[in-house]
Amino acid sequence: xxxxxxxxxxxxxxxxxxxxxxxxxxxxxxxxxxxxxxxxxxxxxxxxxxxxxxxxxxxxxxxxxxxxxxxxxxxxxxxxxxxxxxxxxxxxxxxxxxxxxxxxxxxxxxxxx
Amino acid sequence: xxxxxxxxxxxxxxxxxxxxxxxxxxxxxxxxxxxxxxxxxxxxxxxxxxxxxxxxxxxxxxxxxxxxxxxxxxxxxxxxxxxxxxxxxxxxxxxxxxxxxxxxxxxxxxxxxx
Lengths: 113, 114
Hints:
The complex is a heterodimer of chains A (113) and B (114). In chain A, 36% of the residues are buried. Helices cover 0% and strands 50% of the residues of chain A. The radius of gyration of chain B is 14 Å and the shape is globular. At the A-B interface, strand 4, strand 5, strand 9 and strand 10 of A face strand 5, strand 6 and strand 11 of B.
């Protein structure tokens, strides 16, 4: 059973470009969480999705950031018009059900130049 | 709101010795879960151990055990017989019951010295 997959592992974008981060949950998991880790910090929650629904986006910046988890395919975290402050590691986690623990992917390290 | 505090930014331990990492948390919920995650240089987040708040018995996973003091809202991690591969950042985290997000502390950087 493959773990949570994230791609790309490293992404470099110039200021003003768009960044798309992908997350494929573990087989049988329908709950996806996105977290952001700034340098020397713990992970901070951004958004929680189930298939085709955003359940909780209380940690998501109001502008430039969006997330989706379509019926088919991976979950996508999209950052428009990136700025240097968006440079961070972005982690996706998935869980099978509401009571189960979350399993993390390897993360995508975004660098904005 | 939930909060998790790790008061030790860095710690070191000699190989084969025992080390304890501290964590305190705050929540208004009666049912919640507590976790320790390890993040080695590869940056992969690895679940080390979990504890359900309603269980009085401290969780144990091989060389890793916790000291869960519910009244004090304390959740420390003890690593016995430390190994070089234990060198990593360790994050304490909590979440309320239901499919709620994890709240993380800022981490403790542990170095195991040969």
